[in-house]
Backbone:
């Protein structure tokens, strides 16, 4: 048993899309979340910048005494997972791409045309292709970057025409030309526009990594025998810039949950609490 919290992080509010799945599957696990809202998006930045930001956040979460770190970000998982695991061997660190690749390989066949949408960095890394082809080289994979979607989501521009037009801009040709029937939402922000995508492309099967990562978390907690056995009353959410959207999104997730949510702002550049 280990009653310390699990640390989650993302470039912004996208990683919050993993949280309801965790709350449902593991109600005893406490969360400390870090959203790097002041420096989002990561997906168009250089890999060494993303690596430095991720290591700062991992240092911060380890200082907060977490028992595990969940990289709730495809961009970081696709580029820095190995480095983070090597730098912090004392703590389990879980990426989001491996569990998604596993589910994709298990549930798709050669007739499927599988699309991956993600940030520029994630798509360029070919992390999904490498892991999925490794499990089943006969699958048909196609990928496309869709970089403007994350800033729109961070701004809360979700259920409206601008978002629908942006989705169509990136996906219309991609889906029809490649005859995509299965789409991996390769960025943790995208589950927030899942309804828009489902409405525009009805019949498309959608694979959601924010849901799939929970199986890896459970497997790791089980392997290390570090489940928590204490009820949770509060969860803490840090942001490098405590934006209104970040706070609203969390309030929406925890509405009626009975949890106390603690918001804190943390400046990673000059490590001082600004709470
Ligand atoms: N939510 C992130 C991901 O899964 C990062 C998006 C970004 O910051 O560009 O890739």
Residues:
């Amino acid at each position: 048993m280990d009653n310390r919290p699990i640390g989650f992080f993302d470039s912004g509010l996208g990683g919050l899309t993993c949280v309801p799945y965790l709350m449902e599957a593991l109600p005893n696990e406490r969360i400390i979340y870090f959203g790097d809202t002041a420096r989002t998006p990561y997906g168009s930045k250089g890999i060494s910048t993303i690596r430095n930001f991720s290591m700062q956040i991992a240092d911060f979460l380890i200082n907060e005494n977490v028992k595990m770190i969940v990289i709730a970000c495809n961009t970081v998982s696709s580029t820095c997972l190995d480095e983070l695991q090597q730098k912090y061997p004392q703590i389990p660190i879980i990426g989001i791409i491996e569990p998604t690749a596993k589910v994709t390989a298990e549930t798709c066949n050669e007739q499927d045309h599988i699309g991956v949408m993600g940030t520029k960095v994630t798509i360029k890394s070919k992390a999904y292709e490498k892991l999925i082809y490794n499990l089943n080289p006969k699958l048909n994979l196609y990928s496309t970057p869709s970089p403007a979607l994350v800033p729109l989501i961070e701004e809360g521009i979700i259920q409206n025409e601008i978002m629908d037009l942006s989705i169509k801009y990136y996906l219309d040709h991609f889906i029809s030309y490649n005859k995509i029937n299965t789409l991996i939402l390769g960025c943790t922000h995208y589950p927030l526009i899942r309804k828009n995508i489902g409405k525009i492309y009805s019949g498309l099967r959608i694979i959601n990594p924010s849901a799939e990562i929970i199986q890896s978390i459970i497997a790791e907690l089980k392997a290390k025998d570090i489940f928590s056995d204490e009820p949770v009353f509060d969860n803490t959410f840090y942001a490098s810039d405590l934006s209104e959207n970040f706070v609203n999104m969390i309030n929406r997730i925890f509405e009626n949950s009975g949890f106390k949510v603690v918001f804190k702002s943390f400046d990673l550049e000059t490590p001082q609490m600004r709470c």
User: Anything to note?
Assistant: The two ends are 31 Å apart (CA to CA). The pocket of D-glutamic acid is lined by residues 10-12, 14, 40-43, 73-75, 119, 122, 150, 187-189 (CB under 6 Å). The chain has two domains: 6-95+211-274, 97-209. The chain has a mean pLDDT of 93.
